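Hi,

Apologies if this is the wrong queue. I'm a grad student, and the batch job for ARM repeat superfamily protein from Sesamum calycinum produced an output file that my downstream script rejects. I'm not sure whether the problem is my script or the file. Here is the sequence I used:
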Amino acid sequence: MPYHSALSSLCSQGLAVMVVKVKFLLPKNNLLLPVSALSLMEFGLSDVETLRDESSSSNDGYVALFIRMLGVDNDPQDREQAVVALWKYALGGKHCIDNIMKYRGTVNLIVNLLKSESDSACEAAAGLLRVISSINLESLNEFLQVKEQSICTLWNLSVDEKLCVRITSSDILPLLVKFLEDEDIKVKEAAGGVLSNLTLSQSNHKLMVEAGVIPKLANLLKANEEDSKIIRKVARNALLELAKDEYNRILVMEEGLVLVPLVGAAAYKSFTPALYSWPSLPDGTKIEQSSKGPSRYGASELLLGLNVDEKKAELEEAKMNAVVGRTQQQFLARMGAIEIEDDTKSKVEWSSNQRMTLLPWMDAVARLVLILGLEDESAIARAAGSIADASINEHMRTSFKEAGAIKHLVQLINHPSDAVRLGVIRALDRLSISNNVCRTIEAENILHPLTNLLKQSKSEISHSLTAMILNILIRILDPNKEMKSKFYDGTVNGSNKGWDVVRHPASANGNDMIASELASRRQNIAGGDLVDSTFLSCLVDILKTSIPDLQRKAASILESIVAIEACVEQLISADIESGLVAVFRQKSLIEVEYRTEGDKPDLQILELEEAGLAVSAASRLLTKLLDYEQFRLTVNWHQFTRLLRAVLVSSIPLQNKEWVAACLVKLSTLSGQNSDFENPINMEVTLYETIPRLIEQIKSSFSPEVQEAAILELNRIVSEGMIDSTRAVASEGGIFPLVKMMENGSDRAVEASLAILYNLSMDSENHAAIIAAGAIPVLRKLVLSQRSQWMRALRLLRTLPT
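Support response: The file is valid. Your script probably expects a header line. Output copied below for reference.
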């Protein structure tokens, strides 16, 4: 059959005009002549439809010719033209696609063209695959096999770190993440394997997390499918690598997975469950025994749970989860199978060759509490650290409480191992953030071991451990905790959404009840460890350190304790005055004053904030100490006045100056000085605390009533003629919010704004700022509107250079 006729016939079946370079010899007149190219004719639409309907067997050879041209050994342009031709031919319907798919390996040749440098070839190859897969299901299976093989090839190549970088930074990464949800389990396994290898390079973690890999891997790990062992393994290893970063660790735990240390099967040999004790909840709560008598054949004595009254033993969801988790983990421990599966699956090592695994949160909580009861010191320390890391929300903290972790942790505070103590205190610190859990911690009589630990010499306890102990004490002694417990029921709904708030009905004597309970707690404290002279001296020594964070926490604890009058004498003996002086002489406050605003780097701004918090806490403590006559008789009034005045004019945040100003006013009042503006202390308080605070309220408050009250108070201060009051308003940026209030405020606010701005306009240096704030158009609008303030507006307008 003539080759020219064959090509023309194939072209007539829907192929565009193209030039094909034929790399074989065409017979002509019994001679073999080399032909480099053939021109194909363009046929009309009617010819295409006619020839597509033809089913001549001779057309098979024409299709075979173009499939041969797809081979990788052909010229790229030939391959491109061939795939374009086949794509358009395939649009003819099922019989055309069947003609193409008769030849084995066609899909592989088409897939190879997807990575062609030619956009046209890639588009045609993708279009041809789409057309084929939409009609020929057998070809779809072949295509899926190609996809699986391609990803498996990537899996092998991804061990090369350079190729990992290229994969992560290309469009392949989103596709791999998408393949984790593929219906074909082998495709999911291969995609998970590639991603697991990518996580071995920490530089890839950020891009992978942004691509959404953590939720997909977590779902694979939590899936309980028998045929997904490989998927679970690669997902676990990938998540463990990602979780080495603290931020990623939180993202993993938010998906319901918790890091648990692998401590070795030998460590669980010390586990001895109470097999014949009366059933109790994991947190130690005893289940009430029913009044049923012994069973006829003794089953009730052997199976103690038969004596539990089901109606009385109805459990909340959190307690039920704790019971189920404990039962499962204790069963595995008793069978010696608790780490068999995890040990074979987890090959990821953390620092100091400490291996970890990932478990669903219910199993993880029970496993960690179980490890706390073992004898292995290293295992206990690692479990306590994992509890601290996992306490990221109210749901997890409550889960640990219900699982009985609090009792174990409190008992381990006095453990001889430093690593155990550090891990335990860190866990209690994170758990005590919850108000409900904090009350449980307090009920376990934690004050005695905590105060004993804090009283150790400074060489034996680190700053970080001291800070965590102080955190726990602050939360236990927080008076607001009692208020929260009265008006809010911290019931957690079993999810990590937060609190289900239930307000208790209001009662006339509600405040009296809270006050009574606070007094009762203070009385208990008075007879306990917090009033011990050694402990109080230790807190005073912490005030004398140069660490603002520790100073703030020690001052907050002393503020709670000083409510007991018996403690004041002991604090005076411990030289509380020198401790307060040390706080007010913050090194950062002195150094920063020599720098201009633009010269303060971020680190020094952070130091100022920490110093401000410490100074504010110390000011509250000093204010309360001034209520006791025995302290007033010994205090150096002039020294504290001088120090607080220096703090007031410093650059600490405005919110931290409130208690400094209150303390200064109290010192001034007790010392018998005048309370008017002529008093230099009152003047400084007004200039450096009151005026900035009022301007901040005008700027940032969303309440028109608060803004109006602030502007009226500011007008009163300015109109009374205090020296430098107008300069303080201008330097604090008060002109712009005053102009805004003049435009949008109430009548009283507008009138007060006009009065303040008129006083400011008396200084020509403020004219530029007033005009820049847009005062001129607003004033003209007020004058033309003939509102009640139009005369004041006209007077201010005449003072400005318009």
